[in-house]
Amino acid sequence: xxxxxxxxxxxxxxxxxxxxxxxxxxxxxxxxxxxxxxxxxxxxxxxxxxxxxxxxxxxxxxxxxxxxxxxxxxxxxxxxxxxxxxxxxxxxxxxxxxxxxxxxxxxxxxxxxxxxxxxxxxxxxxxxxxxxxxxxxxxxxxxxxxxxxxxxxxxxxxxxxxxxxxxxxxxxxxxxxxxxxxxxxxxxxxxxxxxxxxxxxxxxxxxxxxxxxxxxxxxxxxxxxxxxxxxxxxxxxxxxxxxxxxxxxxxxxxxxxxxxxxxxxxxxxxxxxxxxxxxxxxxxxxxxxxxxxxxxxxxxxxxxxxxxxxxxxxxxxxxxxxxxxxxxxxxxxxxxxxxxxxxxxxxxxxxxxxxxxxxxxxxxxxxxxxxxxxxxxxxxxxxxxxxxxxxxxxxxxxxxxxxxxxxxxxxxxxxxxxxxxxxxxxxxxxxxxxxxxxxxx
Amino acid sequence: xxxxxxxxxxxxxxxxxxxxxxxxxxxxxxxxxxxxxxxxxxxxxxxxxxxxxxxxxxxxxxxxxxxxxxxxxxxxxxxxxx
Lengths: 441, 82
Prior knowledge:
The complex is a heterodimer of chains A (441) and B (82).
Chain A: E1 2-5, E2 15-21, E3 28-29, E4 34-40, E5 43-48, E6 53-58, E7 65-67, E8 71-77, H1 78-83, H2 92-100, E9 106-111, E10 114-119, H3 120-124, H4 158-167, H5 185-208, H6 211-237, E11 240-248, H7 250-262, H8 271-283, E12 291-294, E13 297-300, E14 306-308, E15 310-311, E16 317-318, E17 321-322, H9 330-345, E18 349-350, H10 351-355, E19 359-363, E20 382-396, E21 399-413, H11 419-434, H12 437-440
Parallel strand pairs in A: 5-18, 14-19, 19-20
Antiparallel strand pairs in A: 1-8, 2-4, 2-7, 3-6, 4-5, 6-8, 9-10, 11-21, 12-13, 14-17, 15-16, 20-21
Helix pairs in contact in A: 4-5, 8-9, 8-11
Chain B: H1 3-17, H2 32-36, H3 40-54, H4 69-81
């Protein structure tokens, strides 16, 4: 018997809402089946199950919001019945989920302004999960916030205690500014004013904005915060190094244009899919750039799953993965690429696409930018950036001509690789783009 | 097919590939890329949609002639008249 848990759909995800169950208790499932829709900051994600078996119990109801790692359902796994639980392999997703929880065995739950830490074994013991109740005070500035485990009795002046009782202010949440940290009348009044202004601004915003507008802005705000968390983590923890090179795209583009002339509109190739394929081919030779840095150790990935950063029209950014790009032929990747981009923009991604990328590409070429130095998406160790393809003077074999040139960059994690390796990787990209027949293999 | 019908076709193809765009906010001179932030994937979807609606194969080399609804209508009316 094992548990199907709320997956971590990226390093930045802390919780998700179970929107729809596609299965019920007693039903048999196969690895890779879509079993639930989960609402996250990144939109609604179709969550796949990563083992085959029979669902014995549903633990979380539709509409319930739970932290990453919370058991959602019990599953009688097919492998467990055959080989016993002991030999059960920890899947990559589970590994990631446990690693991304901040601290050992501790999950961080976020509920409005409250950030409460709960021990993992406490969560495991609960049916579903109880989120911490909202406190009367909506948002407390740092100096008013109580430490979660302040030792000893509260020091409160008698007047402050009386006023607090009258006003309904929770003294346990205050930080005293008096002698020996005692809570004074001024502390209580300040807390009341803060709570009042917080609730006032909240009710104002509710009447001022239309509900729909608010929902959209909350969603993009949520995504903004998710991006902020991931990027801050990246820049705090990952020692990036950056390399740049210019690539002559003339031969590849001539080949692609010729191909596109011969096929119907629906079969045409885009430069984007060539970038994905080229990076995947190059990654085969540089496993140091393809994988995850977890627990002070680099773990090379099994396959090359290229994440492609897609800017959403309503704001925000998602980099879903295309699986096994090194192995799939280019012509098979193209419809997958189009489908993935379209589903990303309409918010219909699957959990494996959200969590499986082993390296990410960002391409700002459409907007005319020539060079982009990206921020690595943790726990990945490399990000490849592509700029606009522009006509530039180009010298080759002593001859000067005009060629279509693209700037490629690599941001890589110095803990996992060094500049020499990164340089060879960019050089390999150059070789691939100079030999477009490589795409056809 | 007259210009008005073509205009409607172009706008409906556009709003089909970028559902957040309201037909009423698109003017005939609106630039797909600069004003509406249409990227290369959106644009290919747009060309595919026009192909479905009008059965026209627009060569990639002609993409530069379809950068706004007005230009697209002019281009398509010429193609369809052939």
